[in-house]
C-alpha cells in the first residue's frame, strides 16, 4: 500500500522535503531550463541526424545494415559509456556550468567533423567523439536542475528540459531531409575545402553549428548552491564506499529502475533509428518526405508526451498514489507492447506513421517522471554518480544495442532489407515487455523508499 500524496499536481510526496529549498524560480532559473533544453535538442540533432543518412552512407562506404548500425550505436555509445562516470563524478564535485560549456562545444565540433570524414574509420572516430562529449549532459544537467527549483516544480522543470530529444529528433529528420534533398542540387566545386563534399557531409557540418551558439549561451548561466533532500542529507562529499553501500542497500529500486529504463530506451532509440528506413524500403517514400512527416510527428507528440507526464502523474497522485512518478512509466511501457506489435500489420505508410506517432507519445511520457524519481530518492552528492550509472545502463542497451538488434534481425534472421519493419516491431515489443516487468519491481522499491524517507523526514 502506498502513502497518500497531498492533492497537489506536481507534489512529489513526503520524500521531497528539502533543506534550504530555493525560492520560487525567476528569470535565471527558467533561462537555465531553456538553455539546457536547447543543449539537449542540439545533442539529439547531432546524434540522430545520421538516421536519415542511412542510404547515402551505405552507398558511400559500401556498408550493410549491421556495420551501419555500429555508427548509430557502438561508435557513439563507446565514448558515451567511457566518459559517463568521469563526468558523473565531476558533476558531484565541480562546476556543472563549466562541464556543460566544455561538453556542448566539443560535441558540436565533433559532429561537424563527421561531415569531413573520408572513410568509415574516420566517421566512426568522429561519432565516438560526439558520444564522449555528450556524456557530460545528463549528470551535470540533472544535478543543476534539482538544485535550482523547489521540489514541487522539479517534474515540470524536467519535462521542459526533456522536450529536447523530441524537438531535436524531429528537427534532425525534418531539416536533415530537406537539407539532404537541397544539397543534392548544390554546386560546391568552386568553394575551397567544401568543394568535394557530398550532400550527407554537408548535413553533418550544418548540424554541428548551432551547438557552438548554445555553448556561448551557457556562459550566462549561474552555478546554483547545492541543496539536499532532508531525508538523505549528508556531508559535502560522500565517499565512494558509502555511495556503493547506498546503491546496494537500495538495490530493489536502483537495480530494477536502471534495467527497466534501459529497456524502455531501446524502444525510444530503435523507432527513430529504423522507422525512416522502413518507410523508405517498405513503402517507397522519399527521404525528404519521410523526414518531414515522421520528423513532425516525433517533434509534436514527443514534446506533448514529456509535458503530459507530470500532469498525468499529478492526476494519479490526487487519487492517493504517492508512487505516481514510477507508476505512470510502468503503465506507459505496458501500452508500448501493443503499440509496437501493431507495426507488424501496418498496411500502409499512413498506418505505420500513426503507429510510430503513438509510440513517440508513449515512450516520452516516462522520461521526466523517472528522472525526477531518481533525483528525489538520491542524496545530492551522489546524484551525479546515480545519473552516470543511468547513462551507462541506457547507453549499453538503448543507444548501443537498439540499432544493432534491429539490424542483426534484418540481415541475419529475415535476410531481407525490406523486412526492417518486422525487425523493428519485434525488438520494441520485446523490450517494452521486459521494461514493464522491471519497472513493476522498481515501483515496489520506490514505495519502500518513500515510506523510509517520509519517516526520516519526520
UniProtKB/TrEMBL annotation:
It is a multi-pass membrane protein. Its main location: membrane. PROSITE patterns: MFS. The chain crosses the membrane at residues 70-91, 98-118, 124-146, 158-180, 200-221, 253-274, 294-313, 325-346, 352-377, 389-414, 420-443. Pfam families: MFS_1. It is found in: Membrane. Keywords: Membrane, Transmembrane, Transmembrane helix, Transport. SUPFAM superfamilies: MFS general substrate transporter (SSF103473). Residues 32-447 form the Major facilitator superfamily (MFS) profile domain. The keyword tRNA processing does not apply. PANTHER family: PROTEIN SPINSTER, SPINSTER. This is MFS family permease. It comes from Sphingomonas jejuensis. The lineage of its organism: Bacteria, Pseudomonadati, Pseudomonadota, Alphaproteobacteria, Sphingomonadales.
Amino acid at each position: 500500500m502506498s502513502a497518500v500524496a497531498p492533492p497537489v499536481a506536481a507534489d512529489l510526496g513526503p520524500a521531497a522535503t528539502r533543506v534550504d529549498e530555493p525560492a520560487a524560480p525567476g528569470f535565471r532559473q527558467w533561462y537555465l531550463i531553456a538553455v539546457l533544453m536547447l543543449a539537449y535538442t542540439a545533442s539529439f540533432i547531432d546524434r540522430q541526424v545520421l538516421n536519415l543518412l542511412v542510404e547515402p552512407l551505405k552507398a558511400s562506404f559500401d556498408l550493410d545494415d549491421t556495420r551501419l548500425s555500429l555508427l548509430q550505436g557502438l561508435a557513439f555509445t563507446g565514448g558515451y559509456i567511457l566518459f559517463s562516470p568521469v563526468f558523473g563524478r565531476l558533476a558531484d564535485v565541480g562546476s556543472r556550468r563549466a562541464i556543460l560549456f566544455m561538453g556542448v562545444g566539443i560535441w558540436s565540433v565533433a559532429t561537424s567533423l563527421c561531415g569531413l570524414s573520408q572513410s568509415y574509420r574516420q566517421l566512426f572516430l568522429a561519432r565516438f567523439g560526439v558520444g564522449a562529449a555528450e556524456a557530460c549532459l545528463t549528470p551535470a544537467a540533472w544535478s543543476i536542475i534539482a538544485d535550482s527549483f523547489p521540489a514541487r516544480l522539479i517534474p515540470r522543470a524536467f519535462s521542459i528540459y526533456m522536450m529536447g530529444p523530441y524537438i531535436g529528433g524531429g528537427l534532425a529528420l525534418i531539416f536533415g531531409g530537406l537539407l539532404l534533398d537541397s544539397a543534392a542540387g548544390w554546386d560546391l566545386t568552386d568553394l575551397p575545402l567544401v568543394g568535394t563534399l557530398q550532400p550527407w557531409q554537408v548535413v553533418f557540418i550544418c548540424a554541428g553549428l548551432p551547438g557552438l551558439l548554445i555553448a556561448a549561451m551557457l556562459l550566462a548561466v549561474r552555478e546554483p548552491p547545492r541543496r539536499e533532500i532532508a531525508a538523505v542529507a549528508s556531508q559535502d562529499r560522500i565517499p565512494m564506499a558509502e555511495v556503493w553501500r547506498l546503491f546496494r542497500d537500495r538495490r530493489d529500486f536502483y537495480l530494477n529502475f536502471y534495467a527497466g529504463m534501459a529497456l524502455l530506451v531501446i524502444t525510444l532509440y530503435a523507432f527513430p533509428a529504423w522507422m525512416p528506413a522502413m518507410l523508405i524500403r517498405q513503402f517507397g517514400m522519399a527521404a525528404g518526405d519521410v523526414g518531414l512527416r515522421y520528423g513532425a510527428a516525433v517533434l509534436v507528440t514527443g514534446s506533448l508526451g514529456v509535458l503530459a507526464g507530470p500532469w498525468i502523474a499529478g492526476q494519479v497522485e490526487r487519487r492517493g498514489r504517492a508512487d505516481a512518478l514510477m507508476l505512470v512509466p510502468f503503465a506507459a511501457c505496458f501500452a508500448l507492447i501493443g503499440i509496437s506489435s501493431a507495426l507488424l500489420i501496418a498496411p500502409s505508410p499512413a498506418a505505420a506513421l500513426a503507429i510510430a506517432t503513438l509510440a513517440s507519445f508513449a515512450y516520452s511520457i516516462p522520461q521526466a517522471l523517472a528522472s525526477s524519481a531518481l533525483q528525489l530518492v538520491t542524496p545530492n552528492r551522489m546524484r551525479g554518480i546515480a545519473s552516470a550509472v543511468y547513462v551507462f545502463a541506457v547507453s549499453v542497451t538503448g543507444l548501443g544495442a537498439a540499432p544493432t538488434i534491429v539490424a542483426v534481425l534484418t540481415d541475419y534472421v529475415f535476410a531481407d532489407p525490406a523486412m526492417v519493419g518486422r525487425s523493428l516491431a519485434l525488438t520494441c515489443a520485446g523490450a517494452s515487455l521486459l521494461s514493464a516487468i522491471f519497472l513493476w519491481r522498481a515501483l515496489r522499491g520506490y514505495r519502500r523508499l518513500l515510506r523510509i524517507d517520509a519517516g526520516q523526514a519526520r
